[in-house]
Amino acid sequence: MERKPLSFGATMLASALGVVIVSVVSGLLMLIMMISMVVSLSKMDSKSSVLVRDNTVLKVDLGKISGDRTGSSLTMSLGEGKSVGLIDAVHAIKAAAADERITALYLTDPGASAVSWGSMTELRDALQAFKESGKPIVAYATAYSQSGYYAASVADKVCLHPSGMLDFRGMGGQVMYYKDLLDKLGVEMQLIRPESCSYKSAGEVYTRTNMSDANREQIRAYIGSIWRTATAQIAASRGMEVAELNAIADDLSGLFADGARRQRLVDTLCFEEDVKQMLKEEHGGKQLLSVEKYAEKVKDKPNKAKDAIAVIYAEGNVVDGSAKGFDEGVYGDDIVKALKQAAKDDDVKAIVLRVNSPGGQATASESMTHAVIAAKAKKPVIVSMGDLAASAGYEMSCMADVIVAQPTTITGSIGVFGTIPNLGKLMNQKLGLHTDTVCTNRNATGMSLVQPLSPTMKALWTRNVEDFYKVFVGRVAEGRHMSYDEVHKIARGRVWTGADALGIGLVDTLGGIDLAVSIAAEKAGLDSYKVKEYPEEKDTWTQLTELFGEGQDDDLSLMAKMRMALRWKASQKDIKALSRLEKDIEYVTTAEGLQARLPYVICEW
Question: What CA–CA distance (Å, rounded) separates 147 from 145?
Answer without folding.
Answer: 6
